[in-house]
Amino acid sequence: MDSLFYFPSTMLWPLVACLVLTGIHVYLGVHVIARKVIFVDLALAQIAALGTVIGILLGYEAGKDLTALYLYSLGFTIFGAFIFSITRMKGEKVPHEAIIGIVYAVTFALTILVLSRSALGPQELDHIIKGELLWVQADTVVKTMIIYAAVGLFHFVFRKKFMAISFHPENAEREKINVRLWDFLFYMSFGFVITSSVAIAGVFLVFSYLIIPAVGAMLLAEKLGTRLVIGWIGGAVISFLGVKISWSTGLPTSPLIVCILAVALILSALVRYMRQAENKKKAVVRMVGAFALVGIFVAAVFFFRKAEEDPLEHTLHMLHSKLPTERVTGLQSLIGFKAEKEMWLEDVVKRLSDEDAEVRKAAVNLLSAVEERGSLPKILQLLEDRSYEVRRSVITAAKRMGTTSDAATLTEVAKKEEDPEIKVIILETVLELGGRDGIPLLIEMISNGGLFADDAYHALRSHIQFDFKRTELAKVSQWWAENQNNVAWDERSKMFHVLPKK
User: Is 366:348 a contact under the CB 8 Å cutoff?
Assistant: First the structure.
């Protein structure tokens, strides 16, 4: 039987990361709530994310150039800290929270715009929101612990100034504390934490760790020390449960922890309500009534659900949805209805001309998966599609369903293709379909040089029975000139060979 406290080694570091996040964020959350800048965490987290995606746009790789991307993210976050420190106004004619909200909205919009110019696009946005908690490694957690320890030490040394500005700002001014300077130092240290946290846990779990345990602790205790202890213990227990349940059920970790934190917050509110109620019996009655009302609401939601329809009909309806994501989902689901292909084939072929690139790609992939060779001519028309991903799917479909006669169409496309990467892939497909006209075009690409000349060499070298090196271009050109009318395709070896002379 699976023990509650059993964890596989792969889940150890995600759990440790959650505990580390809880430790620093509960403390910072107390300050944030006292300052009434609840969404500063979301804003700084989004600024950190914007720094990362701009670094990616400028050529750094997400899985390789980690230090460079961290510095980009940190630089943007420190700049955000500067903005927040100088926009705090005396008397708050414009609430500081309003400025923070504006910065968050603008930064999120900029992130989407930047990602629209990146090949990663939706995948990177998903990573920013969810993080990579399940895949965090020991070295990342250790580095994060060191950063958090340094920030914690910094706050401990200057705790009187930070406490005064957060909890007694009027006293801070009387004591002639430079509020703007210490505000900047607070937000800057906050930025160091956020930059590391977002990379691990994503924007919304970081926000939840910052606010929810601190709010729950405030409901249960008045003293700062007690609040911190409650927040730390509660956050640790919830982190353990979240990671454990996620591992056992396969549910995504970050959203699950956020939901458990929310449940714990509701329980904290109920405990506070019962403790402060003058008439306990009336309080219990009200709570029961509230739970009954929630139960009625949930029951009503399910009672008025749409009647179930035939799964295939439901999937076909999705193909005509106004939302491209639903059309994609419908196309992906149809693979389970291969036996009923005649009922949906016409609709799927129409999706090849859909306005959304992801839908066109899904339609190509589906027709390729069910090997609908009759649709190949229409699929090949997408070789000139504006989407790189669609064209790659078309080439894959051509490899799977094409014949030697289709190789001629691909050859003509390759002659006009300006993208050398796509051109190599098309020509390699031409060879795999038995089209020998791709050979001289690959020789030409090798001769012209360029970034993908080596790819052209490997594509040609692996499909002809002739040994030549990258530098022996004249040798292979002569071979082709002498044997071009005597070259045949061997389907078994997937190679062109010279027929013996009669």
Answer: yes
CB of 233 closer than 8 Å to CB of 240: no
Of 236, 261, 241, give the one whose Cα is nearest residue 251. 241
* 268: amino acid identity, one letter: S
Give the separation between CA 107 and CA 101, rounded to whole angstroms.
Answer: 10
CA–CA dist 53, 44 (Å, integer): 14
Neighbours of 210 (CB within 10 A): 32
pLDDT in tens, 259-281: 999 999 999 999 999 988 888 88
Q: What's the whole-number average pLDDT of the chain?
A: 84
Using DSSP, state whether 279 is helix, strand or coil: coil
495: β partners: 490
Residue 241: half-sphere exposure toward Cβ, Cα within 13 Å: 14
In the 8-state DSSP scheme, what is residue 489?
Answer: E
The overall pTM is greater than 0.85: no
Tell me, rounded to whole angstroms, the distance of Cα 219 from its chain centroid.
34
Q: What is the CA radius of gyration of the chain?
A: 31
* Spatial separation of the C-alpha atoms in residues 425 and 421, rounded to whole Å: 7
Q: Is 435 helix (H, G, I), strand (E, B) or coil?
A: coil
DSSP code at position 88: -
Q: Which residues on adjacent β-strands are paired with residue 497?
A: 488
> Residue 294: how many CB atoms within 10 A of its CB?
10
In the block, tokens 């899904």 appear at 362
pLDDT tens column, 216-259: 988 998 888 888 899 899 988 888 888 888 888 878 788 888 89
